[in-house]
Design a protein that fits this description.
454 residues, alpha/beta, Aspartate Aminotransferase, domain 1, Aspartate Aminotransferase, domain 2, 2 domains, four-stranded mixed beta sheet, 13 helices, 19 strands, 38% helix, 19% strand, globular
Length: 454
Amino acid sequence: MTTGVSNEEIHDLSNKLFSSILLEQQKYMAVKGPDEDKKNMNEAVLTEYEQLKGRGFFFNYVSSGKGHGPFTELVDGSVKYDLIGAIGPNLVGHSHPLYIKAHLEAATNDVMMCGNLLTHKEAYNLTKELVDSVKGSRLKHFWFSGSGSFANDTALKMLWQKKDPAHRLIAFEKAFAGRSIATQDITYNPDYRQGQPQTIQVDHVPHFDQNDPENSLENTLNALKELVKKNKDQYCAIMLELIQGEAGFVYGTKEYYEGVFKWAKENNLYIWVDEVQSFARTTELYAFQMFGLEEYVDIVTIGKALQACGTFFTDELNPKPGLVAGTFNGSIASLNAGQKIVHYLKEGNFYGQDGRMKYLEDQFLNRLRVMAKGPLKGKIGYSGGVGTMISFEVGDSTKETTIKFIKKLYDNGILSFMAGKEPTRVRFLLPTCLSDEHIEEIFRIIDKTANEVL
């Protein structure tokens, strides 16, 4: 255990409780329909919750808190494959032993939350694990935030302070940065900021174009040069997701990013990489490591799979006292789980060309491409992604068709979501615990769904 009370009795009881919880959760390991006596429970809960919340839900889904590996049970007794993981956090699946351990150890603590004023060892342990994981870069420090959006706000504040009065930011088309007042302006989709005043000055340039890779770097650099010419000395940084999640997992090449980053350095701009969604999900722990860009990054934001969120930054960007603060680092359980998960991923066979992430990427993309050329030709089109971040297009790839497919896929036993606009894609954020048998069944369900819908 990390912090909290401990004696032989607590240790023995904790081990027994751990085993009992794990054994019970392992009962939920197969797709099934709702129980006859519970089949209306999702609707009953959500009907009232929608009134309390003020808006509806995309899925008719309420978790029972039961599930194991890639499976999640609903309150109506049905069990489904979870291939979206709450849009990212559940990287290792449901009721993972490390999650159970983290919860039980946190229960021995005297408080729920770890603060900034009075810290706990869990925050120290996770920070140490994280800073150690970015050796080889110039990143030296890490600051916790309450969400991915707030981690990005922290990054922006550090950059603004360092470059004051140059407060303008360069971001990329199809970017998604979060839901805070600042990050909604960095986000490219105007639908996410309807009726909102502009609070920060952001200019968007073209990202890597999968349909025109040869000219992508030139197009981006031309747009960047025009901005700097028009707004000389006004920019503080260039901000980008190396893997654009909301765009449908669009990403460039090492050569593309190096070209952009070298230009940024030549123009005295800091480089800010948003890895809130991509953290731990590519073929290295960080996407910037996968592309070999360690020497360039000045500030990096992470979250989701970490079970917490925060900002890496260099010595040069270390802010003056008073700029960044906050009540919470995170819950004791989430910080504890974050340290365990990062250590587990670093020490296990997850990364590199022979690692688990690459294996899952190859399994899904190869099968999708075979389907697109064979039994589902004309029904499944583009497929792509990296690591456990997979997307594909169905039918005419409109939002309407994609939603229809996703809803039917849900009925047939798979939770997914969508990404992108013109085209809209089906999005998977895969758990690492998928077996070959799981993958076989998932593709049978995809095949069945495509034939029913398209």
